[in-house]
Amino acid sequence: MKITAKQYAQTLYDLTDGKPKAETEKAATDFARYIYRNRKLKLTGKIIEQFSEIYNKRHSIVRAEVTGAKNLSEEMTKEIKGFIKKKYKAEEAELVIMVDEGLKGGIILKVGDEVMDSSISGRLSELKKILVK
Predict the structure, then answer these.
(1) Domain boundaries, the chain
(2) 111: how many CB neighbours lie within 10 A of its CB?
(3) If we measure between CA atoms, which residue out of 28, 2, 32, 3 comes closest to residue 14?
């Protein structure tokens, strides 16, 4: 039976969740050795990604990508985090902030598969579609 990256990640999570730092470090080291010995190093990127998803889900953390025309102010970042916490009933929101000067203004917020486009470029594109009909 083939073990998936998600199964490895779940195992690592189970080995480390709620454990003291020393125990967590030992479990992570033993896990890394196991992955190396069994020639599964090519899965490490996916294992880390899956582990992060499991951890975030269990600890009520929502990760979002925010793309703006320029760097966001501290106030705007706080507002976005508050919006995400409320909308997704999360205890914490992590933001990955990117800049795309082609947006002309506004932001695009992506959480999982959901995309909320409040950029000026996005709104102009929607308006164009409506006018073309």
Answers:
(1) 5-57, 61-132
(2) 17
(3) 28
Query: Residue 131 pLDDT more than 90?
Result: no
**DSSP symbol at 106:** S
In angstroms, the Cα distances linking 86 to 46, 65, 92, 114 are 29, 16, 10, 15
Q: Which two tokens stand for residue 112?
A: 């999982």
Dist CA 110 CA 74 (whole Å): 19
SS (H, E, C) 23-58: HHHHHHHHHHHHHHHCCCHHHHHHHHHHHHHHHHHH
Measured between alpha carbons, how far is 119 from 105 in angstroms, rounded to an integer? 6
List pLDDT tens digits, range 43-83: 999 999 999 999 999 999 999 999 998 888 999 999 999 99
Confidence (pTM): 0.74
- The secondary structure of the chain in percent helix, strand, coil, rounded to multiples of 5, reads 60, 20, 25
